[in-house]
Amino acid sequence: MEMTPIAMLNVMSPMEKMTSMNAGEKQIAAINTEDASFLDIFRGMVNNVIETNEQVDRDAIDLMLGNIDDLAQVEANIQKASVAVDLLVTVKNEVLSAYNSIINMQV
Length: 107
Fold this sequence. Notes:
By secondary structure, this protein is mainly α. The chain has one domain (about 30-105). It is built from 3 helices and no strands. The protein has helices at about 5-10, 40-65, 70-105. Helix 2 runs antiparallel to helix 3. The radius of gyration is 21 Å and the shape is flat.
């Protein structure tokens, strides 16, 4: 007997939350966005930039010492750091733009 798409949806189990790629090393703290302030989210972004840049620095040292065999992982870490910095700068620029718009409003 073939199941209809609606019947298949009733039988499917919900997806589980994905674990981080570095789950063996450490767990990334999840931010509850309902209770988090902008400052908490921004601090999390800054911490993410710091952590990814520290990882790139460790990778550079290991690469110079010849302790790294997987160059793809090094390149992935460099890209993560680049994206984290770009995101932080973009958010900062948008916040400053909104602040300037509010300051320049006629009251």
